[in-house]
Q: What sequence folds into this?
DNA sequence: GCTGTTTATATCGTTCACGATGCAAAAATG
DNA sequence: CATTTTTGCATCGTGAACGATATAAACAGC
């Protein structure tokens, strides 16, 4: 019966869960000075790529539903990073736009990816190995998305 | 200046974050019938390996602090899965023990790892590739733990 | 043994994450 | 064009996570 699969040590998902949590903690030194959280950073990444998007489009990119997005965006609006205006074509939509302040954070965020890489992956030589995880994670995410839909 | 590192598509951490979230969602079909959440499942994994542990020991294995553990364990106690008694040697400690009900869930959880594997990783042939992520995730977790301490 | 420090736990406040539900606008259907 | 369905967003409640802070017990140094 017991083949050891129920041991924490053998749990792939626990590693995923822990790595994700600890990773968010590692962002703190870089995000705290900007006054934002990791999910808020993700929203900004999406908006820096393309400004003025409806809530649902941002949610699709981040794979988050509106019940998560709405309060998140409300906090960001309160912090002066974005504005949420009504859509003109589709009046149900809320168009999320960067404020001057939200746009200005882009410059300050420039070195975050590089700094995170340096902080975490000490040996530059191992970088290639880690990058091999990307297609696997993408594959996993795709499978999980189908599973959860 | 803009080397594309601030694009969502190039974010390793976003993949980690998303995969962890979606993975927890994929556990729902298996954990809901047991009336537990994923973090509660992790606590049970630790207790099924060894019963009667102080809060801090469980926390160390899950890499969670007491400000997360205490409310989590309180909910599990309320649900009748565990009891929390005072330590005898060290009266500061709270010894967490499985109830009959908590122990009984072990049998019902036997097939969860296997079912999750089947549900997510469709091709059996790709299993080996995914398992190669484990040492990399472990390395990442160790680096992040040092970083966050 | 007394005092300063560390350890184990708890509480509070804030932010996420998400299931469930509601509502109005848009789209699809007959 | 009227009715049904879908879509976009919001709200509520619950369960994490986690920083900050508190408290009492254990421990260490003198």
A:
């Amino acid at each position: 019966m017991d083949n050891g699969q129920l041991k924490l040590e053998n749990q792939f998902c626990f590693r995923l869960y822990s790595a994700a949590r600890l990773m968010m903690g590692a962002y703190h030194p870089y995000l705290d000075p900007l006054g934002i959280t990791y999910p808020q950073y993700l929203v900004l990444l999406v908006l820096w790529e393309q400004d003025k998007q409806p809530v649902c489009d941002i949610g699709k990119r981040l794979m988050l539903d509106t019940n998560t997005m709405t309060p998140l965006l409300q906090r960001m609006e309160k912090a002066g990073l974005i504005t949420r205006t009504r859509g003109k074509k589709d009046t149900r939509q809320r168009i999320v736009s960067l404020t001057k302040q939200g746009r200005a954070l882009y410059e300050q965020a420039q070195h975050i990816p590089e700094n995170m890489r340096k902080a975490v992956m000490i040996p530059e030589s191992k970088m290639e190995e880690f990058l091999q995880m990307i297609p696997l994670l993408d594959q996993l995410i795709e499978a999980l998305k189908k599973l959860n839909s």
